[in-house]
Specification:
Bound molecules: calcium ion
Helix content of chain A: 25-40%
InterPro entries (chains A, B): GarD-like (IPR017654), GD_AH_C (IPR048332), GD_AH_second (IPR007392), SAF (IPR013974), SAF_UxaA/GarD (IPR044144), UxaA_altronate/galactarate_dh (IPR052172)
Protein name (chains A, B): Galactarate dehydratase
Oligomer: homodimer
EC number (chains A, B): 4.2.1.42
Largest interface: A-B, 86 and 86 residues
Pfam families (chains A, B): GD_AH_C, GD_AH_second, SAF
Number of strands of chain A: 20
Number of helices of chain A: 14
Structural class of chain A: alpha/beta
GO molecular function, one term (chains A, B): galactarate dehydratase activity
Amino acid sequence: MDAVASPPRPPLYIRMNERDNVAIVANDGGLPAGTVFADGLRLVEKVPQGHKVALVDLAAGEAVRRYDVVIGRAARAIPAGSWVHERLLEMPEARSLDGLPIATVRPPSLPPLEGYSFEGYRNADGSVGTRNILAITTTVQCVAGVVDFAVRRIKAELLPRFPNVDDVIGLEHSYGCGVAIDAPDAIVPIRTLRNITLNPNFGNEVMVVSLGCEKLQPERLLPPGSFTIVDERNVADVGESADAKLDVVCLQDEAHVGFMSMIDSIMATAEEHLERLDARRRQTVPASELVVGVQCGGSDAFSGVTANPAVGFCTDLLVRAGATVMFSEVTEVRDGIDQLTSRAVDAEVAAAMIREMAWYDDYLKRGSVDRSANTTPGNKKGGLSNIVEKAMGSIVKSGSAPISGVLAPGEKLRQRGLIYAATPASDFICGTLQLAAGMNLHVFTTGRGTPYGLAQVPVIKVATRSDLARRWHDLMDLNAGRIADGEATIEELGWELFRLMLEVASGRRTWAEQWKLHNALVLFNPAPVT
Amino acid sequence: MDAVASPPRPPLYIRMNERDNVAIVANDGGLPAGTVFADGLRLVEKVPQGHKVALVDLAAGEAVRRYDVVIGRAARAIPAGSWVHERLLEMPEARSLDGLPIATVRPPSLPPLEGYSFEGYRNADGSVGTRNILAITTTVQCVAGVVDFAVRRIKAELLPRFPNVDDVIGLEHSYGCGVAIDAPDAIVPIRTLRNITLNPNFGNEVMVVSLGCEKLQPERLLPPGSFTIVDERNVADVGESADAKLDVVCLQDEAHVGFMSMIDSIMATAEEHLERLDARRRQTVPASELVVGVQCGGSDAFSGVTANPAVGFCTDLLVRAGATVMFSEVTEVRDGIDQLTSRAVDAEVAAAMIREMAWYDDYLKRGSVDRSANTTPGNKKGGLSNIVEKAMGSIVKSGSAPISGVLAPGEKLRQRGLIYAATPASDFICGTLQLAAGMNLHVFTTGRGTPYGLAQVPVIKVATRSDLARRWHDLMDLNAGRIADGEATIEELGWELFRLMLEVASGRRTWAEQWKLHNALVLFNPAPVT
Ligand SMILES: [Ca+2]
Ligand SMILES: [Ca+2]
Ligand SMILES: [Ca+2]
Ligand SMILES: [Ca+2]
Ligand SMILES: [Ca+2]
């Protein structure tokens, strides 16, 4: 490999707010003891990259502030220039859900952003797809092996005849039977599966493979009237027809004699849907048709400094353009709940957020844990000392717009603007629930690095650090580390991401699509299995 | 299709015990009102196949007996010859876990069965594989897309050079991060994954793909000393070496530059393991090396009449041959707990069974349900009115041998004989937990029909009815419906299954293997996700 040596960068720390008494070290590889910053601060010990340095002498018990928030109390006296690692921080209690500020902030109204568009697939139900995919819904894990077999055959034998169709996928999952389907919490996985079936990228073409004896019967998964059925005889004849029948291949159907008869049924059914999908063409639609889900995973201290603020800026652009943006991950906003309730458009939205936080507090408590179970070894290695600090860096993805709606896990969007979609922070569960909400584009920020991808929607991955972006040059779609390097501003990166979104929504492939990296659908099932 | 008409069968009902006051209709398609049986009983209404008919007049509130057990009370007076469907049965309360009979039954000691063997792969740890598979362990769902990509390349480019290796698979799952890994119940999914890695069919070759920042670090999944590491330099030099290192490909390793460098690392690591696996040969081993997991799914009223009793007879043969048999599915034995505690070899084993039942009762209660959440629409359509009746038909898979041990979910076997491995009844979760216990052969009975299969072990599927076996002729490996047809006895079918097991263990492919039907590993995680 050839490499051109760059001149060493001057020592740099990044402070998020002028009231903060700690900052993080920006330089690759960290900085040694004795390093002197431009303002005269001298490191009394080595501080790794992304980790915190005390800007002033901190007394034992003193509040340690970052993002202008108390991320903990000093466990002992900490001299200026020291490494403030997680063992020196005592984590505060979770903010009580009583007495929160409700819709107190009137954010400066954001001027509309007009004239931006992308090339998308308009659907009969009014939504717009960014991809044109045949998705085969499954009611139960029992049919997964058969559907896999059929999908391989469809891709090899049918798909070449339908060049306008991007892909054929089975919507496989572990739910559907062997579960307490009448438990109160079973509504979460059931509506998640129902709503994923209706994701805009599947063109309102609904076909189902069922076993026959499973608990999650097709009519329970997709009750009559739950979606607009495209009439099977004629693509022009679209509408909510009372006579339209759910298109189900049932493996236990007595007409099936021999394994290949099941495969033949699935293929024949798929072919009808492929014909209609193949007749569709992209058309120019306003940027307001974007439905973006944002999340982070493999976070480090740069997540909240580079990638997430750029996403937050872009979130504001999207909201100004009339689009929909979902942010999620309950345990990563729990410690900033006061920021969210104050940004709610009204008391009802704030109450819905509090309801979701309270539900999750209780859910975690039933399992004898709390929100602090969120942080990972990688987070801590990356400089994030605790969930409070992680949350402050995560929440900035939501930008500054008013929060106009809240979704419980698995619910489908009913409105535009900035939406809080309550989900676990687990990358796969969050992504699966955002798919159910109706996401047509996914933005994922990462500091430690993850090859995350979904078969259902394009995923734009944003690196928080240039080192990661360099090493993972064919996995990361955008390098927000340039902000820490002083090569781009948050605003510039935000605009770059916005333009990249429009391109990807129009068909440009992401790296995860290039390599066909597909993670599993993982359902959130808070109810028991049987 | 040509078909030769068979003479219609005489009307037949099947009574399980002479004290029963109901029996099930055996004939295909059920029997119409007016049908008269050989003993003079006349049907007062149509009764579907597998459903119950009252053999005598039942008074309102009278105990309805099947398998010599009270499966419910008559909701109203039921005349002889009536269809006793689920709405006519009031389900009894679950048997209290106090005051159970403990180790009271001394089953007639079963004479040893000698001289049976199969051709298996002996492993360094003493276990025996029935297949020779390279399994790539993953710590976290994040790496699944990359591992899928690598496995496709390994199969296409490396596997043809190693003809003695049956398959290469990724052990993918939804666990590893975004989970409350320090919650008390997290021990279940973690030990499940650990023990699956050590399944006998993987030849003690352990290789791991890790992301790097995940909660389930490789050293936490497989702590030093948790398994016998095959020395990497020399296949002959096998043993527990303190210096041996866990063979991990970490995607976030700084040495990885570009996606293909990750794939190259995985392939190079896989090649070393493939070389050693390929050098192995099958050798004759006694039948006592079989470790059989039995379960049922898609059950009907015939499950407990044909397939499960045949499996139970075969279970006794296996125990007599010194082999290991696991039966499972907590909610399907809960109503027969008194039968199990009385068959326990000692008080300790009985106490362990009670502990597992109590744990599950509590787990279901936390989710506001009970054991009755088990039954499915298909069960009821197939004639099983409630969980008590289903359980009586399920429990017979355990045969008559003393129960010599109990495993909590995810634990690994430490002894031979008949073992109660406590698992949910969910087919995939049960199969996954039996894999973790060390199963090298899986037996699955089904009445409604399921194409169930696993990539990790061969699955022998046994049909409860001839109609299913005829239609699913290339999915069902054995037809126990011949028992109901009067063409074979339970003993004959049990012996047939025993011989089929030895053949399949020796390499004969099952139908699920023929079509490569693979269901997902589904972990039992009673702890919260974050
Ligand atoms: Ca996150
Ligand atoms: Ca996440
Ligand atoms: Ca190696
Ligand atoms: Ca069962
Ligand atoms: Ca089962």
